[in-house]
Design goal:
This protein is an alpha/beta fold and about 350 residues long. Helix content is about 35%, strand content about 15%. The chain has helices at about 20-30, 45-50, 60-65, 80, 100-110, 130-145, 175-190, 200-205, 220-225, 250-255, 305-320, 330-335, 345-355; strands at about 1-5, 30-35, 55-60, 70, 90-95, 115, 170-175, 190-195, 215, 230-235, 260-265, 285-290, 290-295, 335-340, 345. Strands 3-2-1-4-5-6-14-15 form an eight-stranded mixed beta sheet, sandwiched between helices. Strands 9-8-7-10-11-13-12 form a seven-stranded mixed beta sheet, with helices on both faces. Helix 8 links the parallel strand 8 and strand 9.
Length: about 350
């Protein structure tokens, strides 16, 4: 199969669908790999690195989409990508259609086969979402700590505190991959951490992270009471394929002191805060109810070298399978099919679209 790796066109998105080593693996299995010129530059990979791996570098998107049958990219297609997509393409990328009905309808109208990384499921795990979730969880703490600095409009607070100075309080909603990574990063800084979840198993795991971590059941009342003392709120709620539920209302957010920070990792699925609205790295923050919000939809794109390497390692076995004629026998990939031949296929996505 001819597999195409286009240049990402989302604002300040630095990731690339596959790193050169992954392309070499595809070539070794007899596939032809086309890479758009400059696709890997922001991840630190020159065109020559792809050529050395056996891929063929093509000059522009039209050339790449025109030849390739399987398109492997990172973020959802924008207008510039959609202009090149055809019904016979297989598109393999993050889609997050529950929060983007317009894109969902355009893909359906195209008749394309669109397989979403975030709904490929192996058992109970989401192997193509997990590495980016972990990165986003860590970044949420790093970004939140920075936004708490006084020059950024924050409280002027050091999250870990010092002798004679109080620790900052980090509240995390959700103890999945992203939430767990956020809890571990915040706890390692020395912050006081409260994490909410509904799973006894996850709450137990979070409590064992450290003595400065408290794990509580996600009662709305308990979340509201805790927010009054929070410095940094991190939303990390995920219902695969579905819109994230609003666990924090505007009224609840008002309890947070001015200069506090909210980072909503769930923004790709619509966000778990009532006040969430999607932003980009060009204008990443806004203030609602005195709280600085960071709701960038491609958080891991800020660390593209790390992100691309981690994503490629997770992707390569699934790309190899998707490139086979009998890929539909793979149940994990079939879980990932969101749209095909004008029909919504994934049950969760279909339910959202029919809502």
């Amino acid at each position: 199969m001819k597999i195409g790796i286009p240049t990402e066109i989302k604002a300040l998105e630095g990731r690339v669908g596959l790193v050169p080593a992954a392309c070499a693996e595809l070539v070794r299995h007899g596939h032809e790999v086309l890479v758009q010129a400059g696709a890997g530059a922001r991840s630190g990979y020159a065109d020559g690195d792809y050529t050395a791996a056996g891929a063929r570098v093509v000059p522009d998107a039209a050339s790449l989409y025109g030849e390739a049958g399987l398109i492997v990219k990172v973020k959802e297609p924008l207008d510039g990508d959609l202009a090149h997509l055809r019904p016979d393409h297989i598109l393999f990328c993050y889609l997050h259609l529950a929060a983007n009905r317009d894109l969902a309808e355009r893909l359906r109208a195209l008749g394309i086969t669109a397989v979403a990384f975030e709904t490929v499921r192996v058992g109970r795990s989401l192997p193509l979402l997990a590495p980016m979730s972990e990165i986003a969880g860590r970044l949420a703490v790093q970004v939140g700590a920075h936004l708490l600095h006084q020059p950024q409009g924050g409280k002027g607070l050091l999250l870990g505190g010092l002798p004679a100075a109080s620790r900052g309080h980090v509240v995390v909603l959700g103890a999945g991959v992203a939430g767990s990574a956020a809890v571990e990063a915040a706890a390692a800084l020395g912050a006081r951490v409260t994490v909410f979840d509904i799973s006894a198993e996850r709450m137990d795991a979070m409590r064992r992270v450290g003595g400065n971590v408290t794990a509580l059941y996600a009662y709305q009342q308990a979340i509201g009471e805790t927010l009054a003392d929070a410095d940094l709120l991190i939303g990390a709620v995920l219902l695969p394929g579905r819109r994230a539920p609003h666990l924090v209302t505007r009224e609840m957010l008002r309890a947070m002191a001015p200069g506090s920070v909210a980072v909503d990792i769930s923004v790709d699925q619509g966000g778990c805060l009532e006040t969430t609205r999607a932003t980009t790295y060009e204008a990443p923050t806004y203030v609602e109810e005195g709280v600085t919000h960071f709701c960038v939809t491609n958080m891991p794109g800020a660390v593209p070298r790390t992100s691309s390497q981690a994503l490629s390692a997770s992707l390569i076995p699934h790309v190899l399978r998707l490139a086979q004629p009998d890929w539909e026998e793979d149940m994990a990939l079939m879980e990932g099919v969101n749209v095909r031949a004008g029909v919504y296929v994934n049950a969760a996505v279909k339910a959202e679209m029919e809502n």
